[in-house]
Design the sequence.
């Protein structure tokens, strides 16, 4: 969107194509957020069509590449997507932490202001704002930015989640006043993340603050499949249930060559205790975790664990269990994705 603004100001027409196909133009740009196999296939197609004429950026291609300052400073051209529902942007970039799986510290460096605040990307009169900041609360002057959200009565989606470690008695009352929203801006919701059992205590000691946000208001994105064992995952799921937090289970997507580092053995506790758990909200998302467990179990032991399969097929697609049980070797991501 910034490239679009920049080139329109130079007198070009700019168009967005989500399909890979031949178009006649003066310049071509593409952006790859993740380096997944489907993205890589598209990049190959683009190269076949445009050769070196297409300039491909984005984290999926090169984490060190940045827009030139004069383009980075442009106001985003929302019309490119015919998009008017919310403004999208960063107030800050970077993070002071260094989680093993995360490219933000290497890509963005230390935490600092990115724009001249909301005016850098929020069109006049727009109230819905999706923030892309990776660790907003860790920013030294976060309170000023939060206050600005309150004063302007913005509806804010903290899309990259907030870091619970920075939720303190100083920021909490301001956050309470912010109209935090889900990504569709259809209901109030505030997001935190919990990627490691070592952070459970951070939630426990702030449980009254979390409760203060309101029932079903706090959602926690919990990553699995990177470096935690089954017992570590279980400890997190139990705490999230205990505190009544809406859990969003998120499988680790390898990025930048950082492979998952699952401990050996991963299955270090009674699996029945885990699969017995239920989650009041987000049941489908929990089922995704169970399916991941199922694949990992098969990969580890060369056989499936029937109680786990019965749990997965408990509510949905009951007939498919027979097909699956006849062909346990089909426990692959293909089956998983076709089901989803
Ligand atoms: S706190 Fe968040 S943004 Fe910072 S390194 Fe960890 S995962 Fe990345």
Sequence:
């Amino acid at each position: 969107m910034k490239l679009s603004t920049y080139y329109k100001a130079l007198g070009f027409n700019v168009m967005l194509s989500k399909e890979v196909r031949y178009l006649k133009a003066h310049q071509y740009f593409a952006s790859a957020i993740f380096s997944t196999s489907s993205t890589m296939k598209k990049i190959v197609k683009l190269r076949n069509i445009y050769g070196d004429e297409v300039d491909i950026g984005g984290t999926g291609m090169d984490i060190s590449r940045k827009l030139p300052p004069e383009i980075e400073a442009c106001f985003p051209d929302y019309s490119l997507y015919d998009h008017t529902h919310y403004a999208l942007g960063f107030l800050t970039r970077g993070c002071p932490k260094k989680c093993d799986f995360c490219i933000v510290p290497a890509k963005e460096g230390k935490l600092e202001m990115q724009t001249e605040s909301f005016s850098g990307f929020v069109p006049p009169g727009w109230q819905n704002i999706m923030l892309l900041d990776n660790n907003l609360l860790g920013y030294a002057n976060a309170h000023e930015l939060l206050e600005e959200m309150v004063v302007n009565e913005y509806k804010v989606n903290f899309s990259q989640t907030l870091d619970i470690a920075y939720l303190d008695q100083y920021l909490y009352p301001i956050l309470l006043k912010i109209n935090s929203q889900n990504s569709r801006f259809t209901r109030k919701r505030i997001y935190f993340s919990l990627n490691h059992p070592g952070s459970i205590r951070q939630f426990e000691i702030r449980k009254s603050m979390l409760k203060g946000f309101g029932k079903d208001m706090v959602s926690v994105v919990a990553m699995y499949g990177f470096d935690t064992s089954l017992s570590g995952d279980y400890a997190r799921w139990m705490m999230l249930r205990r505190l009544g937090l809406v859990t969003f289970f998120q499988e680790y997507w390898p990025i930048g060559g950082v492979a998952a580092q699952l401990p050996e053995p991963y299955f270090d506790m009674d699996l029945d205790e885990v699969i017995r758990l239920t989650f009041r909200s987000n049941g489908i998302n929990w089922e995704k975790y169970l399916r991941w467990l199922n694949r990992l179990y098969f990969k580890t032991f060369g056989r499936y664990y029937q109680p786990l399969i019965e749990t997965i097929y408990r509510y949905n697609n009951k007939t498919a269990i027979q097909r699956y049980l006849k062909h346990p070797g089909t426990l692959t991501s293909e089956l998983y994705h076709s089901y989803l």
In short: Residues 95, 97-99, 102, 104-105, 134-135, 163 surround iron/sulfur cluster (CB under 6 Å). The chain has three domains: 1-70, 84-269, 280-340.
